[in-house]
Amino acid sequence: MTQQHSAEEAGRARLASALLEKGSLGSDWLPSFEAVPRHLFVPDTAWPGNAGGNRQQDRVIRTEEPDAWWAAVHSDVPITTQWDDGAYTGPGRGKVPSSSNSMPSMVFSMLGALGVEDGHRVLEIGTGTGWNAALLAHRLGGGNVVTVEVDPAVSAAARARLEAAAARTGAAVPVTVVGDGADGHPPLAPYDRIIATCSVGRIPPQWLAQCRPGAVIVAPWGPVYGGEGVVRLTVGEDGTAAGPFIRSSAFMRLRDQRTDRPPFGAYLKEPWPAGGTRSTTTLSPDGVGGWIDMFVIGVRVPRMFCRTDSHGDGSYTLWLYDTDVTSWATADHEPGRTDYEVVQSGPRALWDELETAWRWWEARGKPGFERFELAVSAEGEQRIGLGEESWAVGP
Fold first, then answer.
1. pLDDT at 52
2. Which of the following CATH numbers is that of domain 3-197: 3.30.1120.10, 3.40.50.1820, 3.40.50.1000, 3.40.50.150?
3. Which pLDDT belongs to residue 312?
4. What gap in Å lies between CA 53 and CA 75, rounded to an integer?
5. What's residue 94's pLDDT?
6. How far is CA 57 from CA 68, 88, 94, 154, in A?
7. Do 208 and 378 touch, CB atoms closer than 8 A?
8. From which residue to which does the signal peptide run (predicted)?
9. What strands lie across the sheet with 97-101, from one edge to the other?
10. What is the pLDDT of residue 121?
């Protein structure tokens, strides 16, 4: 055994031990983890992330920094593999990450939630680097796994990795398809399981239509405002689906559901405060920016998004906008203050809507993701539920 191979084995063993200790990797998926090494599905040029998944390091090239590259592969961190739909290649970082090799603990927690059984046919939305599809194919057989990727270059690279891994390890090769994941893949339907490796704000009705009754859909889901969790839906005999959120998540958006946010200038035609109504609040803008806070605000306040404008001294302005380009609001955070200035303009008082939503959540004990549920009609209409309460939620 070469020194490099010995180091590979040691790194994989450390990662497996960490995942087993976290409870994300179970004994049912351990053989697939061992048979399908992650490093076979990470390109030579990569951008390692952190455990939170929301900040990427600078570019690491395997031939130039092998130790850093291997350290990332054998760590429980996401690894960005494409920026700006391939338009940016480096050095440094691009603007928007558009493909990745997901954090291993997230990969195996979602595969565990999928609950696959021998003979199941699985549709994966978002091939990415191909690792998730390879794990499924090892477990179920290549003919039972269909993976759809919208980006032809990403799909081709994943297919090459899948075939190379099969030649090296004897792993099965899944059915790879280039197409819009929102459409699923009708020719090989019906499916027993669907798993998405990209986030959605609405469950495509095509997914439901391509499922057998009793099928399970595991997908990252998040509202317009922000915040996101993995939902596990069970499909009923009538083509509807419902189920709980099982954990938080942070995935790239399904390309079919990406949105372009209107620019600042679309809202303010004159310098701030632009005739807005001033008020104050005791709710700190800094206290509503957590991932679960944003999720709650998003599912309670429709068609609103936010941006922040840092002032470099620990203070910043939280900007709120409606997607209909009719209203905006600002809330100024300054460290040490107990009241905060608010300015609102337009037919919607957006800060008031945000505060009402947050206070609603506070009054219920600030429940976490696992307390919320999602129900989807056969036509794609969605409702969020919390205990006995439920309400419609749009994309």
1. 56
2. 3.40.50.150
3. 85
4. 12
5. 87
6. 11, 15, 11, 21
7. yes
8. none
9. 60-61, 45-48, 79-83, 97-101
10. 98
The encoded tokens of residue 285 equal: 């803008």
Identity at 153, one-letter amino acid code = A
Give the per-residue pLDDT at 7.
75
Sequence-separated (6 or more) residues with CB below 8 Å from residue 3: none
Residue that has been written with the tokens 């696959």 in this structure: 116
Listed by start position, the domains of the chain span 3-197
Q: What is the Cα Rg of the chain in Å? A: 22
Q: Mean pLDDT by 10-residue block, N- to C-terminus, for the chain (395 residues)?
A: 69 95 96 96 92 68 94 96 88 88 97 98 98 97 97 97 92 95 98 98 98 98 97 98 97 92 89 93 96 98 96 93 96 95 98 98 98 97 98 89
In the prediction, which pLDDT does 169 show? 83
Question: Cα dihedral angle (253, 256, 261, 266), rounded to 10 degrees?
Answer: 180
pLDDT confidence of residue 51: 65
